[in-house]
Amino acid sequence: MIKMLKMFKSTIFNKFNKLTLTALLFVLTAAVIAAALLLGPGGEASAQTGAAEKILISVRSKITAEGGMHREVTVSDDAKIIEFAKNEFFGESYPLETGENFVAISKTDTGLMRLSKDFEDAEECAGVLVVEKDLYFTTRMQIKQSVPVYFDRNLMDKASVRFEFELPSSVIKIQRDKKNLARQFGAFTANEFALNAQANVDLFYQFNNYGPISLVIMILAAVFGAAKINRRFDFILIPLLAIAIAFIFAGIVILAIGESPFAALGAIFKGAFGSQTAALNMLLAATPLIFTGLAVAFAFNCGLFNIGGESQLMVGAFAAAVCGYYLELSPYIHIPLVILAAALAAGFFASIAGWLKERFEIHEVISTIMLNYAAYSLLGYMVLMPCFKESGPNPQTKEILSSAVLAPFFHRHALNYGLIIAILAAVFIWFLLYRTTTGFNIRAVGLNPAAAEYSGVNVSKMIVFSMFVSGALAGLGGAERVMGVFHKYNSTAFVGYGFDGIAVALLVNNNPIGVIFSAALFGFLKTGGAFMNREIGIPVELVIIIQAVIIFFMAADKIVKNLLKLKE
Amino acid sequence: MHALSMRAISKRFKNVVANDNITFSVRTNTIHGLVGENGAGKSTLMNILYGLLEPDEGDIFIGDRPARFDGPKDAIEAGIGMVHQHFMLAGPLTVTENIILGSEPGGGLFLDYKKARAFVSELSERYGLKVDPDARIDSISVGLAQRVEILKTLYRGARIIVLDEPTAVLTPQEVGDLLKIMDKLRKDGVTIVFISHKLREVKLITDDITVIRAGKTIGTRPTRDVDENEIARMMVGREVSFKVDKKPAAAGEIKISVSGLEAFNDKGLKCLKGVSFDIRRGEVFAIAGVEGNGQSELLDVLGGMRKPAGGNVKLFDKDMKATDITGASPYRVYDNKVAHIPEDRHKRGLQLKFSVKDNLVTSLIHKPPFSNALGVINSGAINSNAAEKIETFDIRCGSAEINAQNLSGGNQQKVVIARELSKGPEFIIIAQPTRGVDIGAIEFIHKKIIDLRDSGVAILLVSAELSEIINLSDRIGVIYNGELLETMESKDASEEKLGLLMVGITGKNKGGAQAGDKNA
């Protein structure tokens, strides 16, 4: 039996080589996407309606995909109730029957009064039912209940309110945060209404984003094809396959929690590429990761595993914040000086680990981890010192002078010239490692210190130097955050960049140029993931799953190599 | 009756034919030598036998039954054991634990260590493979570790044992012991396939010899019918001379003077106890000795990689002006026209993961034309240097871009030699120049060394091969326990004489000192 299975396995692998299998996989994926496109988004979602016995007030709200709303309220022909309806469902603050905010009042065939109004922007619907636009994104709405505080008690007991929603077909999910409201959403009395004062209703929209996904799959297929034809591109295959596997795995997880993987991936793409702001957000998130990724990659080329990027970035950030505030200079001098200060401070801080290694043979993984904690505490203390601390309750430094601010590319977006510095740094590090004698010797030390020593390299010097450069790179990341984004140092804003840098470097096998792309990918996952969380309610941790799977398959590259049948 | 026959085996890798219709049969209860140059296809053939590779064509018979191995597990079940050149042992575990690893006695979760230990003792007793079953692998010598590997295969019931270059890592004494063990195993009914570059050993111990060249079987002969020269000719495909032709040395002035050199080893023990010697220009001075008597440390001190504890090293220029390089860094040592072919090319001599062209310039990279004053590398110069060196030193690597680790031992050594000679040395340290190098390359390397001597370079040669030392050198010093015991002219030396001195028996104290078991 086992023999037969083995035979079967080998027949499959012999008959269909990997290329055919890969092609088959892509055709299948394409077919699934096509089917999904043809069938369209299935979610004809609308809020359920319930019947109430005595309906005095009926509210029909039609929400448009653009974020506007048309609302109709039908009430009995009673002046008191009409007044109530006007106040509650159209907003007391709006003068009625004038200008834009005119509420049309007409009589229906059945003798009831109908009040109606279009809101260009759902945010305007003040009153009992508020549809709020998301602060950052137009496509998600919150419907809020507010309390009819001045409501006539007598009327309240008698009144029964019936709500109906008509939602655009792209809404795929309605999420309510109060269960009792969920039950009674269709109809409930004004009293109950008042009780559920803070209930939120979230509407989630689906993005028809099969386009970018298909594009990405096609690019992937092209790269795979190119690498199959020319062995020189082998090195791209492993990270790409790791990424592809991670996304497939994430898709399975999304399915398992009962959501649509396409909607989720669509949201991630939209969150990172959907608008100019989204793309800028992605690059903004990627910038510090380029620096910390380079820091890890550079040290790794010298055989050093620098886990201290986290604290080195913070030291750089603190140095930048202090120099940015205390020096008063022309921007042409101030900016380079602050950058230099950050790099030097972080570089010297990291050199401690290098020195401990060459002098006492203390492994850099241990010392950099320990130095992380030392830096957290030291900076946490220093930020409270009167000479650095901003007046007020917040533990943060004083804001840097405008002469030390890295100019943003666009008005009202923090993406700044730090990105250019990051890319230049990557190119410089590549040049240093692969085109200079210093880099040659650093790589020699990294691969085999004994052989490097034999060939006349001062191994100790190289170790300290590499840690210095590595720390300086992380420090530049801190400078960028302070000078371009936060303009001050505090203990919480700089967390996570250093550790993400390890993953960034690992993904591209510590290649400095690759770090740019790898950081962009992580920036994409970060911004896209946050957007996905806001838009369709899938937890942002999903993105961490994707990152983890990528890193797993990069670290276990043997698995990927076997999948691809690559030779070492 | 054949214990094993592999018939018409072919194996291709991409565009290389590693095994081309090879037929290899081993008679039961014999020791069968398998010889061939590096890259001839021996390892591929043995990996096929051990189930690590699948042949494209051909059949394997164990006894007279056809066999098909999908992995080493199947091969082990069929009674095949393999002892690799690089041991597969877990350092922190004991001998017994290593032997039983993977097929532990005792039921379920529990390990019957007592039973295992008794079994191991009995096994080692029976075959004369004396080892301490409770010793940690870390703490035993290479020779003993090899015995553990052999015991491991016997424990798993091997009746056919493949020994892949087992003597390459052993001292002469250990080689003798291993040959005795092999003989004993043969008497006990075990069949052995013996892979070695050392034809003398092959000639000494085997019953039959199969020669492979360039993936093809050249022939199988009874050992008594062939001599070493004939085997070598079959291997290389042409006449090979073992005798080095050299004129008497035309020694000039003193180039290097070492006096009273002292140093500690990694364990903190004094391993050089006042070593002194001079080497003249145009002279080969060789140091013979059993490994572990201070040669490695001496080489490290001269090369600048170990700080001496006493004594001094002086280099002289043409006008006999001295430069003291005692305790200098390797960088400064090379700056004084010293080159160094290290004893361990994997550890020191090469960056295995660098390309051949980069390996040809390590330690030269900071000099023009390979880089400019700003330290920017000139890849054009590196490429042309590689092309030239590959041509003149006949380095067979396919492409200069290939990583050094993919080269055969001989070609790796040629890379090291090519690089060191391009330093234009006046003094060169040469250690184990032909270790793990195939016969064709040995001839080439020996000739290079003599050419170097004749061009007036002072040469220090350290080798474990006594024949190499006697053939190449002009004067020989014997090192024992950190001291140079005696220095003699090569023409007065013989292997016997050196062998006695190497274990500490000098004319003055015959039978007195014994070679201490340094690993005990």
From TrEMBL, chain B:
Residues 4-239, 256-506 form the ABC transporter domain. Keywords: ATP-binding, Cell membrane, Membrane, Nucleotide-binding, Repeat, Translocase, Transport. It is found in: Cell membrane. It is a peripheral membrane protein. One of its GO terms (cellular component) is plasma membrane. PROSITE patterns: ABC_TRANSPORTER_1, ABC_TRANSPORTER_2. SUPFAM superfamilies: P-loop containing nucleoside triphosphate hydrolases (SSF52540). Pfam families: ABC_tran. InterPro entries: AAA+_ATPase, ABC_carbohydrate_import_ATPase, ABC_transporter-like_ATP-bd, ABC_transporter-like_CS, P-loop_NTPase. The keyword Cell membrane applies. It comes from the Bacteria. GO terms for molecular function: ATP binding; ATP hydrolysis activity. This is Heme ABC transporter ATP-binding protein. It comes from Candidatus Wallbacteria bacterium GWC2_49_35.
